[in-house]
Each structure stands twice: as C-alpha cells, then as structure tokens.
Amino acid sequence: MEKLYACHYCNQKFKIDEINIHILSHKINKNKPYICTYCNKNFSKPFDLKIHIRVHTLEKPYCCKYCDKKVSDPSAFRRHMTNYHSEKVNNLNNGKYIINTEYKCNYCNNYFSDKLIFDKHMIIHKKE
User: Are residues 74 and 122 in the same domain?
Assistant: First the structure.
C-alpha cells in the first residue's frame, strides 16, 4: 500500500505524485481557499463550497410545497417560488420563503425535508 501524505492546508491525503499538485492549488487560489474534496474546485466562501458539494451528494434540502420541486440551494428555491408560485406565496416569513417540510429545528428554526439530514444537523446543537 502506497504511503499517503497530508496537505498542510486542508489535511486531505494524497499519494506522493499528487500532493505537490494539490498544494499548488492552494497557493494559486489564495482568494479561494475552500476546496471541494470531490473535484478540487476552489471557492472563496465556505457557504459557496457547501452549496457546490450538493452537486456531488445530490442533496436537495429545499422542497416546494406546491409542486414538490426540490433544489439544492436557497437562491434556486427563491427563483423557483418567484417564477412559478408568486401568486400563491403570501410573501416572505422573516425574509425567507416557508419551506414545506416536517422537520423543524426548535433551536435555530431551520427546516429540513430529510430526516437523516435533520438528525445530522441536531448534532451541532448537542455540542453547544
């Protein structure tokens, strides 16, 4: 088994012939230090990386209560609601569209359409 070396920027592990190329990606992209572990794409904000990772995991936490359309990021959800259901939505709830879901976090009032994702989220509050 070939030895793996950890990147000192992000702790990902690579073979010796891959580690230098990976480290170079951190140096080239100083303004984008957040790297996708699936495809090595760089991002300037952790939230952008989080949304991007959903492309790989197929997670779609935003679910429309009118047509069951599911999307992976909040801007796509707002766009969907505006383009397809603006007449049905009695506007916003504290600046956010109401999401059709059965899982609501009572600590931070976030909504989840998937129980597994909700359970993972609750671990954050248990640590607080």
Answer: yes
Spatial contact of 18 and 6, defined as CB atoms under 8 Å apart: no
Give 62-68 contacts, CB < 8 A, sequence gap 24+.
Answer: 62/99, 62/113, 63/99, 63/100, 63/101, 63/113, 64/100, 65/98, 65/99, 65/100
112 bridge partner residues: 103
Q: Distance between CA atoms of 120 and 11, rounded to whole angstroms?
A: 23
pLDDT digits (tens, 9 = 90+) for 1-36: 789 988 887 888 888 888 888 877 776 667 888 888
Contact yes or no for 105/114 (Cβ under 8 A): no
Length of the chain: 128
Q: How many domains is the chain partitioned into structurally?
A: 2
The structure tokens 């190329």 sit at 21
Whether residues 73 and 122 share a domain: the answer is: yes
Q: Does an H or E element contain 42, and which? A: strand 42-43
**Tens-digit pLDDT profile for residues 69-82:** 899 998 888 888 87
Residues 6+ apart with CB under 8 A from 126: none
